Amino acid sequence: MTDTPHVETEPHSILKQPIAVWALAFACAVSFMGIGLVDPILPAISRELNATPTQTMLLFTSYLLITAIAMFFSAFISSRIGVKRTLLIGLALIVVFAFLSGAAGSVDAIIGFRAGWGLGNALFISTALAAIVGAAAGHSGEAVILYEAAMGIGMAVGPLLGGVLGSISWRAPFYGTAVLMAIGFAAIALLLKKAEHTPEPVELAAGLAAVKDPALFTLGLVAFFYNYGFFTLLAYSPYPIDEAAAEAGRDFGATELGFVFFGWGLALALSAVFLAPRLTRAFGLMPVLVTILTSFGVVLAALGFGVHNLTAVITLVIIAGVFIGVFNTVLTEAVMEATEMPRNVASSSYSGMRFLGGAVAPAVSGPLAASYGAGVPYWVGAVSLAVSLIVLFAGKRSLHRIA
Q: What's the domain of life for this entry (predicted)?
């Protein structure tokens, strides 16, 4: 008889979550710091290790490529050894390879260590998404918002931490991440005991086989082309900002770059938590996906035209964070709801396609800029978003569960 008031209020209270969920969210935030952490120190690594922008952007590619490949098999691993063990192994690998990246003596060594870092990241991130959705109180959409909020906070704090520590040395951000990940490891080890469970056994190729599902294939392909644009912005932008600052006679070091991408990440986090759920309630998942893809494409095209104007580049990069935050949340929620397959399988398969698109962008952006001009990588990113939009419309029939 006393249940009625709780039924009405609890689903809307995203903050009322078990402590294990908050431990996972903290570790997720720290994990995502590793993505944006290197942004402010890319120019410094280029200068101090005598590397080209194309070489240093491979720090993203090796990380994201291994992350993507491993994602397809993370559901198999977690179903065999358990969610908690998978999370802890992933975190331990990140600690080790983040430390080794800081101790590296060449850009090639860092590229290699970032690949190992990506393996740990894959085991942790895809498992954490399914774990948060499974352990959170309320609707799966609320759990996704928490996950994307953690991602946004990590994306915001990562560049800021990278910038502040990078002003001391380009090595310091890597050591800092190793320490934070060790804290995340301890939090999961201590607080996830009650949430420990072993999912139903999953076949080795389940993540790859899941791509055959029409809805998952459509959304995974949308994520692939979208993430190409996303990581064009994230991995490539430090170089146009650095060059535009030099042309304007401004001293723009790691700290200043850190603050720019902190603003971007903050916009991402706030829009993921506050704007995305309001937009989906008001208009529905599909209209929001279409609108945000279009808007983000316009921003990337504008960056291509304003690439030599420091104020324009900084402003547009931060604005892009708003669209990215909304889209990440809405697309992830769509994946969780669009198919009947186990969430850990859907999460690993979708995440693999998602990060694979991100891995391509840094490898392509450097050569494009060197050969055709600084604005071209942004225009190619805008075209990739247009392709993502076409895929979304072409596969609309398979998305009847979310339409």
A: Bacteria
Rounded (10°) angle between helices 140-166 and 310-338:
150
Rounded distance between C-alpha atoms, residue 243 and residue 245, angstroms = 5
Place of tokens 């952007």: 57
Instruction: Provide CB contacts within 8 A for 76, sequence distance 6+.
Output: 202, 203, 204, 205, 206, 207
Using CA atoms, how far residue 35 sits from 98, 264, 304, 387, in Å, is: 11, 13, 23, 25
pLDDT of residue 198: 52
* Domains with residue ranges and CATH for the chain: 14-399 (1.20.1250.20)
How far is residue 123's CA from residue 348's CA, in Å, rounded to a whole number? 9
Q: What is the pLDDT of residue 344?
A: 67
Give the separation between CA 264 and CA 238, rounded to whole angstroms.
12
- 134-137, Cβ contacts within 8 angstroms, sequence gap of 24 or more: 134/195, 134/197, 134/343, 135/18, 135/20, 135/21, 135/24, 135/195, 136/17, 136/18, 136/21, 137/10, 137/16, 137/17, 137/18, 137/21
* Confidence at residue 140, expressed as pLDDT on a 0 to 100 scale: 58
**Residue 138: its pLDDT value, please?**
59
CA distance 275 to 296: 15
Nearest to 258 by CA among 33, 26, 98: 33
Q: What angle do CA 220, 224, 339 make, to 5 degrees?
A: 10
Tell me the whole-structure pTM to 2 decimals. 0.82
